[in-house]
Design a protein that fits this description.
The complex is a heterodimer of chains A (about 300) and B (about 200). With about 300 residues, chain A is mainly alpha-helical. Chain A has two domains: about 190 residues, no CATH class; about 60 residues, no CATH class. Chain A contains 14 helices and five strands. In chain A, the strands form two sheets. Chain A has a three-stranded antiparallel sheet with strand order 1-2-3. With about 200 residues, chain B is an alpha+beta fold. Chain B is built from six helices and six strands; from the N terminus they run H-H-H-E-E-H-E-H-E-E-H-E. Chain B is elongated and about 80 Å long. Chain B has a single domain, classed as Alpha-Beta Plaits. In chain B, strand 4 and strand 5 form a beta hairpin. Chain B starts with a helix and ends in a 13-residue tail after the last strand. Classes of the chains: A mainly alpha (about 300), B alpha+beta (about 200).
Chain lengths: ~300, ~200
């Protein structure tokens, strides 16, 4: 069986012994259900947050640092909460109750916030797909995407906590590019949009670098989500080496090379946002979003 | 620990320390009137995550959001007493902003008398009774009139700091322009000299 790498798929071929499967012939992907599901969920939430001043407070109020739904359900950004704890050296019951939703969700579902909720994630993902359409390729090559310094975000997280403790002010909560450009109330609009503009510029050459390598909130969620139950499961025996999952993963996870070809039962990369794009692109229909406890 | 991760950790701590120190310089330079339940400017800024729940929950719309971006006072809630003072949610079971605060920056369980927004001070050069005009506007507006604002034998007002919570109702009520009474927020570097009753 010959393996040719087409120009639009600048990917690294796994060794023959790693993945003894055939290339698909005539296989078609299904309807991109999860792709649209996660994008529309994030878009709906973004619209709610942008319309916050016109929504009755008993239904919803707040911003991305902390929001109250239906007048009773407080949801706090866990990193903002953690920063106030180290900045003020106090722990209050309200804070723990507010952080509970996001922390429990991350423990069960992993970085699901990044794919399904985060407004910056949505904008950067759309930016990424526009960029692919414009440039008509999928650069940069997967190799460089994979070698992005994923660990840097953990240092950023540690830096945010140390900095907040020194400054006695929550630092990321005041600068957060997740909150500032996407909350309508209060901030200086021009300055609030500046971090977003800078990120869009950077990511034209280096897609999703913020989410993969810099975001301290994403780092916190991926630490919490290490043992989460929701995963992309790899089902079925016949594994086609089409590599669309690796090519289109927004987080640059080498789904095919690192998981499918190695016979893993599920993708346990802590950076996986459970966006489901790989399951939609899969030509063999072997990737499913579902519950899995196994760690390969 | 190998050399590379040691360098990464050391530079993280270094950058974070420098940023933190720079951010710390910004806070407390200008103190503002904070919502009820805050204890000091410093404490308030360390716990406020700029979610603005207090702003939306205020029934009299007394809280404004300070302009700017970044650590320090930017995007935090404050009271502009001359525009709209805090009425301490008079006649209601609890103060709405304290109930709304998700982080405890506005300490829960604060009673109206424990509120410490600041202390009112009277400018005797412009205050009407000191010019010989009868005026009791501040006294009438004060939620603790007779305790926080009192009058001497000549009908001139003075503030008793231990009883004043700094709500700013007197500032709003003052007849002169600019107001002859203002609230000095807690956390400002200036001191509060007790105004001696004559």
């Amino acid at each position: 069986m010959s393996r040719t790498v087409s120009a639009s798929l600048p990917i690294v071929e796994p060794a023959e012994s790693d993945c003894p499967h055939r290339r698909p012939r005539g296989a078609r992907p299904g309807f991109p259900f999860w792709t649209w599901a996660h994008r529309l969920t994030a878009l709906a939430l973004l619209l709610v947050f942008l319309c916050e001043p016109w929504i009755p407070p008993r239904l919803f109020h707040g911003n991305w640092n902390g929001a109250v739904w239906f007048g009773a359900w407080t949801i706090l950004d866990p990193l903002a909460g953690l920063e106030t704890i180290v900045a003020s050296r106090t722990l209050s019951r309200e804070l723990v109750a507010g952080m509970a939703t996001t922390v429990v969700a991350a423990l069960l579902l992993g970085r699901v916030f990044c794919g399904w909720v985060c407004p910056l994630g949505l904008v950067l993902e759309l930016h990424q797909s526009v960029r692919q359409r414009v440039q008509k390729t999928h650069p940069p090559p997967l190799q460089s995407r994979r070698t992005a310094a994923h660990g840097v975000k953990f240092y950023v997280l540690a830096g945010c906590l140390v900095g907040s403790a020194v400054a006695t002010v929550p630092l990321f909560a005041t600068w957060s590019p997740i909150n500032l450009p996407f909350a309508w109330r209060g901030e200086d609009r021009l300055w609030a949009l500046a971090p977003l503009a800078v990120l869009l510029l950077i990511e034209w050459w280096w897609p999703r670098v913020f989410c993969r390598s810099l975001c301290p909130l994403g780092a916190f969620y991926s630490l919490l989500g290490r043992w989460s139950l929701l995963r992309v499961r790899i089902t079925g025996e016949e594994r086609l080496a089409c590599r669309r999952c690796s090519r289109d993963c927004p987080m640059g996870i080498a789904v095919m090379e690192d998981y499918v070809c190695r016979g893993a039962a599920a993708i346990d990369d802590p950076d996986c946002t459970r966006c489901g794009i790989c399951t939609d692109r899969c030509l063999g229909h072997i990737l499913r979003l579902g519950w899995s406890r196994s760690r390969s | 620990m190998d050399r590379r991760s040691f360098l990464a950790a050391a530079s993280t701590v270094g950058v974070a320390g420098l940023t933190g120190t720079a951010a710390r310089r910004q806070i407390g330079q200008a103190a503002h009137l904070r919502p009820p339940g805050s204890r000091s400017e410093h404490q308030f800024l360390s716990q406020c995550i700029r979610c603005h729940h207090c702003v939306t929950s205020c029934p009299v719309d007394a809280l404004v959001i300070l302009p700017g971006v970044g650590p320090g006072a930017a995007a935090t809630p404050a009271i502009d007493a001359r525009r709209q003072p805090c009425d301490l949610c008079a006649g209601q079971p609890a103060m709405h902003c304290i109930d709304a605060c998700p982080t405890g920056a506005l300490r829960p369980g604060t009673t109206r008398r424990q509120v410490a927004i600041g202390v009112a001070r009277i400018d005797q050069r412009t205050c009407l009774p000191f010019q010989g005009v009868v005026c009791r506007a501040c006294w009438r507006a004060c939620p603790f009139s007779g305790e926080a604002i009192r009058h001497d034998a000549l009908g001139r007002p003075y503030v008793d700091p231990p009883h004043c919570v700094g709500c700013g109702l007197c500032v709003h009520a003052c007849l002169t322009e600019p107001p002859s009474i203002h609230v000095e927020p807690f956390g400002s570097k200036r001191r509060f000299p007790r105004e001696t009753p004559p």
